[in-house]
Design a protein that fits this description.
The chain is an alpha/beta fold and about 120 residues long. The protein contains 4 helices and 4 strands. It is about 50% helix and about 15% strand. Bound molecules: NADP nicotinamide-adenine-dinucleotide phosphate (NAP).
Length: about 120
């Protein structure tokens, strides 16, 4: 049976390469993205890979997205937590809001997706 893979931030950059490699290896890939609809559409048209938009930093959105994917395609076998943002600055220049946004997307996003997948299948 074809294994199902979800790649967060899978439409651009490193995530795009991961999505393409998983597809090449025979997995059914769903690539998540956060806001760039044009880039996601171009990626999906070019590769045939399904794309879905949600914010990995939003806990409920991750639970809902995992439920929707499992209902549409089947249980998620592979989860690649790639989505991330950069707000680099020295400590003096970095604002709390920048710090908080990076933690929310890069770190809490992984927890949110794990909850969405693992706890549904526990
Ligand atoms: N590039 C590097 O040199 C480097 C080095 C070390 C670590 N990393 C890490 O590797 C990962 C990928 O980096 P990259 O350079 O390939 O990034 P990128 O080109 O900026 O692509 C980021 C991807 O993540 C998505 N994304 C961003 N915020 C999101 C959110 N809140 N919810 C869902 N999706 C979101 C983007 O969607 P949209 O297209 O909609 O914006 C895009 O698909 C990141 O975690 C980054 O921190 C990168």
């Amino acid at each position: 049976m074809t294994r199902i893979a979800v790649v967060t931030g899978g439409t651009r950059g490193i995530g795009e390469a991961i999505s393409l490699k998983l597809k090449e290896k025979g997995r059914f890939v769903i690539a998540n993205y956060g806001g760039n609809d044009a880039a996601a559409k171009e990626f999906s048209d070019r590769t045939g890979i399904a794309v879905r938009k949600w914010d990995v930093g939003n806990h409920q959105a991750c639970l809902d997205a995992c439920a929707a994917i499992e209902s549409e395609f089947g249980p998620i076998d592979i989860m690649v937590n790639n989505a991330g943002i950069t707000r680099d600055a020295t400590m003096v220049k970095m604002t709390f809001e920048q710090w908080d946004e990076v933690i929310r997307v890069d770190l809490t996003g992984c927890f949110n997706m794990a909850k969405g997948r693992v706890c549904r299948n526990a």
